[in-house]
Amino acid sequence: MTKVDLNFVEGLTLEERADLVSGTDFWFTAKVSGMDPMLMTDGPSGLRKQVNVHSAMDQSIEAVCFPCSALTASSFDDQMLEKLGEQLGTAARAEKIGVLLGPGVNIKRSPLAGRNFEYFSEDPLLAGRMGTAYVKGVQSTGVGVSVKHFATNNREDQRFTNSSDVDERTLREIYLAQFERIVKQAHPATIMCSYNKLNGVQVSQNQRLLTNILRDEWGYQGLVMSDWGAVVDHTAAIKAGLDLEMPGKGDASKEEIIQAVKEGRLQESTLNRSALRVLEMAERYGHPKTPAPAYDMETQHEFARQLADDSIVLLKNENQELPLSDSAKLAVIGELAQKPRFEGGGSSHVNAHRVVTPKKAMPAHAVYAQGYRLDSDQADEQLTKAAMELAKNSDQVVFFAGFPEAMESEGFDKHSISLPANQNKLLEQLLTVNPHVVVVLQNGSAVEMPWEPKTPAIVETYLAGEAVGEATWDILSGQVNPSGKLSETFPKRLADNPTYPTFGKDRRHEVYREGILMGYRYYDAKQLAVRFPFGHGLSYTTFAYQNLTISENSDDVTVSFDLENTGSQAGKEVAQVYVANHASQTIMPIDELRDFVKVELQPGETKHLTLKLSRRAFAWYNSETETWEADNGQYEILVGSSSRDIRLRQEFELTIGTNPLGKITGETYVGELMENADERIKQIIAEMGLTATFDKFMSPELAPIFANIPLRSLTMADIDAETVHELLQKLNELD
Ligand code: BGC
């Protein structure tokens, strides 16, 4: 067996090394003497292994189609995501796939973004936790992953050329934090760089992102590959830290690199470094040391059903409309029951093993009517009439609604988040003849629901994978108690979203003007009513939260509370811990999700839960000092069932962080200094005989003016220049 190391690489010809840093074709790495090529395949919700390299995008081998990431994130269930990874890895091993191209972990910035179905959340902690679990699961089987799309690929229109213009703090806190967590905790085999530019620099040749942040700061050891066709200048890309161009451009790719080396534009050592990473990947994941685990598609189909069961979100359930009554005359209306949307379009499209439609899985006594056509948004008179007739003569109606495939896919963004007009219209009509309409949604991201106030029950199934029918009825019938929570906010109107005025408006620049105040961080700061908040999801049982205690240890903060199932059936709850920062002297969201746990409880059972928040849970990214800063001072811990259903809250004082003043300079204000003065500061002031003077400045009469004077201008307040200088010098020396 070849030993892959730098010596081995240096023993290869320049041609061979140049060959290695581009794919041989769409899916394979190059073959060089002593090392066979390695196969990679999409991801992320099932295998899309093309029948052969030249076959069309949708001609792939049969594989189990698991729920899309928008749904799996709604599980808030790390263990299930790890199991999903194991299932995918097992399937990949059976198909001799070395690297699975997923998960996609970009943040859902706008509900219009075409690929939201493939991404986890608007919140980086949730996206990071789900991604970490998924990656650990896949890689535990000996298959590598490619975490994509690094980074800020938050829109599809002009995705190859558009520049995501993001300020540094927003970049770090919102758009990179999930990648950082995954890299540090799950050590993904590869990272896939995105198509777009970041602040004007093509990501595939962005040294700051691909090397300085990813490798130097986060310590990433794996390989960086390009998204398919993302490389503009291959030499510049390799220099910046890209290792593998995908797919290759044939001989042209090789020639380009050979020329660059010969002309001295690319150092051989840089080429060797990337060639070595390709070989290491091919060796480790292309030639696994352990035997492939047992693989059975029916077992995987059953898991796809359980994962959907664990993730589907019960958005509304007035007067216990659900679970459906066994004895009720039941109407099932909507073409989506017969032709469900269960997966997204584009590279994640799977040739599903066995799709069970909601119509196929519906109870024997239910009666179906098509109601509307998916290929048009015009109402169909005959279909409407038949549906209305059926609704009139039924006790309950289950109405299947959603975005048709043509409206939502990789490759383009949406222009609206309304359901097609014919679906909205029919639903309004049905509600006039039967108030017991349960709406089941199939869509990739947030939907406007003008009819929500009139609708007693709404179930969000997103794109639920091939077991869509079984899982939907598991929830509707009550065979499974729902436990999913929204991983994104559903606004009342698209126009309420903070990116509404800017998203997709400029062909060349996508300007992230809303900064860190996006998703629930924005809606909460604005105190804006939303349709359904982040973290929301109901159960058929009820939960009570009690006895919150908070204690600070030398490295972290421990949050404990009791969670009780107060209803009459077993159920799972996602307890969410948010932090409200009142300490930092900068823009802070009202609250941020900092931890969560999913717990199963029998009726009457109570569990005592303990969660630990590290310093990072209290930190913000200070782009001036280029550090994560956790400021000492007042915080509040909020524990709840959703971001807007907080059951317990308690203030506490953080002392394990840093001083919120940061470095004290002449530009520090008197008010800031005195409000945050610790013993050391007070002592300096006392030693200089200035205590009475500062007390006077902060007296109720003078504080409104004096608190707003910077230290350097205290000469205006009868302190001589020398004393001001000495005071500043002493304060400055504090770390
Ligand atoms: C997508 C990637 C995908 C690749 C290979 C690209 O267009 O952006 O997510 O992995 O194609 O199919």
From TrEMBL:
Transmembrane segments: none annotated. Keywords: Carbohydrate metabolism, Glycosidase, Hydrolase. It comes from the Bacteria. SMART domains: Fn3_like (SM01217). GO terms for biological process: carbohydrate metabolic process. Residues 573-643 form the Fibronectin type III-like domain. It holds the Pfam family Glyco_hydro_3_C. One of its GO terms (molecular function) is beta-glucosidase activity. InterPro entries: Cellulose_deg_GH3, Fn3-like, GH, Glyco_hydro_3_AS, Glyco_hydro_3_C, Glyco_hydro_3_C_sf, Glyco_hydro_3_N, Glyco_hydro_3_N_sf. Belongs to the glycosyl hydrolase 3 family. PANTHER family: BETA-GLUCOSIDASE. This is Glycosyl hydrolase family 3. It comes from Limosilactobacillus mucosae LM1.
